[in-house]
Design brief:
Elements (H helix, E strand, L loop, with lengths): L1 E7 L11 E8 L2 H11 L6 E4 L5 E3 L3 E8 L4 E6 L3 E7 L4 H11 L16 H5 L2 E2 L2 E2 L4 E8 L5 E5 L20 E11 L11 H7 L9 H22 L7 E5 L5 E2 L1 H10 L5 E3 L5 E3 L1 H7 L6 E2 L2 E3 L6 E4 L5 H19 L8 E3 L4
Parallel strand pairs: 2-5, 3-5, 4-20
Antiparallel strand pairs: 1-2, 6-7, 7-12, 8-9, 10-11, 10-12, 13-19, 14-16, 15-16, 17-18, 18-19
The structure holds flavin-adenine dinucleotide (FAD).
The site of flavin-adenine dinucleotide has 33 residues, from strand 3, helix 3, strand 8, strand 12 and strand 13.
């Protein structure tokens, strides 16, 4: 276990703003986590589990204890000729897990290649990309109950998974810490190519091979992974070069009436109909139309290749990035009567 007081957070989260945590704790086992929770109970400090910090923005110092899992174990719980059930520790790197599964010839995660972060956050955020979400793969989430210090296994159906959302983000936020996540992968996967430029780029590489032999499956999974990594590389800034947390805003969902009104006003408005009859709009398009793409205020800016991504060009404070986000929210609201909501978790006094 590693405990650090007044721990600098700049290198512990991908926005790379300067902030301190009153305490930072790396724990290596559930027993250590229980000991920290027990010992800290009397101090009345706030506590929060964190992973790689790829979806966090610190607007001020964190006044409590940040709990970071180093549980990186990975085991096969069940396997047959169709599927594999995996159990993975919360501290395991997400993309290393995807790479490993692809190399084994197990399908399901390949479209989620390149998403930075650790396994513990995947059910919390219900991460998603290129037509696939974590909820499509998660079968159960193992947690530690912060109050009772007992372990529980929560079936996926109880987790309230929705677009970038789960019960871990609201009612369970103060209650559970994810220790392990169980995933179901397929040995006969269906490939999702119908999103963005994926299909065209796969064709450029010669397309998927026909056949069901294990080596062909591995090649196809690898091709899809490499294609998605390349597309992401072109659109998103590397967090070690330019601080960011991926998409800052979620794509807004609006009712049919507003969608139809906007559609008549704005030719080419990108939108997707949802099963409940509402419409999802492209936050990137709305932000772009408000003229924010590529704009910069000090060291806080909007990424030129993807206006959904707010960036820290070096020395921006968390508050400056938040101020920029609020200006964008205001402009989109004024122009389109659509409210943008941050996907990034904003932590601090003014959040
Ligand atoms: C360049 C870039 C690209 C991105 N692209 C995508 C994308 O395509 N799709 C997508 O969905 N996201 C994307 N993201 C966002 C981010 O990668 C994901 O949200 C990821 O799951 C964050 O993982 P993390 O370990 O860094 O979590 P953190 O940012 O540390 O934490 C995120 C949340 O999870 C909670 N949490 C973390 N660990 C635990 C735990 N053990 N128990 C309980 N709660 C926990 C935290 O309290 C916090 O609320 C991107 C981010 C970046 C920087």
């Amino acid at each position: 276990m590693n405990i650090q007081a007044f721990s600098p957070l700049r290198e512990r989260h991908s926005f790379h703003v300067d902030a301190l945590a009153r305490y930072w704790v790396d724990y290596d086992s559930v027993g250590e986590l229980c000991a920290v929770l027990r010992d800290a109970a009397g101090f009345g400090l706030p506590m929060m589990p964190v992973g790689g910090g790829n979806n966090l923005l610190f607007v001020s110092d964190y006044p409590g204890i940040l709990l970071h899992s180093c549980l990186q174990d990975r085991s096969v719980l069940e396997e047959n000729d169709r599927e594999v059930l995996l159990r993975v520790g919360a501290g395991h790197s997400w993309d290393a897990l995807v790479a490993w599964c692809v190399a084994q010839g197990w399908g399901g995660m390949q479209n989620l290649s390149g998403i930075p972060g650790e396994v513990g956050a995947t059910p919390v955020q219900n991460i998603g990309a290129y037509g696939v979400e974590a909820k499509d793969l998660i079968t159960a989430v193992e947690v530690l109950d912060r109050e009772t210090l007992g372990l529980k296994t929560l079936p996926a159906v109880d987790c309230g998974f929705a677009y970038r959302h789960s019960r871990f983000k609201d009612e369970w936020k103060e209650r559970y810490i994810v220790t392990h996540v169980c995933f179901r992968l397929s040995k006969k996967p269906e490939f999702r190519l119908d999103y963005g430029a994926v299909s065209a780029r796969v064709e450029e590489q010669g397309g998927l091979q026909q056949g069901s032999e294990p080596q062909i499956l591995r090649n196809n999974l690898q091709l899809l992974r490499q294609t998605i990594l390349a597309i992401r590389d072109e659109k998103l800034p590397r967090t070690d070069k330019v601080g960011n947390a991926g998409s800052f805003f979620m794509n807004p969902e609006v009712d049919r009436e507003l969608y139809l009104r906007l559609k008549t006003l704005y030719e080419g408005l990108p939108a997707w109909e949802l099963p409940d009859g509402r419409y999802k709009l492209s936050a990137a398009w709305l932000i772009d139309r408000c003229g924010w793409k590529g704009r910069r205020q000090g060291d806080a800016g909007v990424w030129p290749a993807q206006p959904l991504v707010l960036v820290n060009y070096g020395q921006a404070a968390g508050q400056e990035i938040l101020d920029l986000a609020r200006e964008i929210i205001h402009d989109v609201q004024e122009s389109f009567a659509v409210r943008l909501h941050p996907e990034v978790i904003i932590l601090g006094e003014d959040a």
